[in-house]
Amino acid sequence: MNFENYVKDAKTWTHELCTYLGIEDENKANRIFRAVLHAIRDRIPTAEAIHLGAQLPIIWKGVYYDGFHMHSPVRIRHEDEWLEFIRTKDAFAEDADFPTLDHAFYAFQDVMTFLRDHISEGQYNQVTQALHSDITVPA
Question: Which InterPro entries match (predicted)?
């Protein structure tokens, strides 16, 4: 096991994510990514959540699975409700990272675009289909 490579992979994702988010603060990018990943994980069926986790770099897998348990998907039907749900996943930093629902919306869009470019097309499509049709996701 080469832990240095795991760290390198995680840092590469973080650096690229900063570009997608249009920010330089890697800690903020990591918090946003974690919040969106946890919201997606808890919104989609457990099997889909596990398939998504399998495509993440090893360190991000640990972040993704932190606090994970077998679950029934959280019922969310409206985009504003979804954006508020993302904000609740931000470990008490929601006011700094997502001061408004617009901030949460654009962060979600940017993270989804990042995921679309970093996971398989099939997995991305399964995730987007598992979200409610009222939740806007990049095609």
Answer: DUF2267, DUF2267_sf
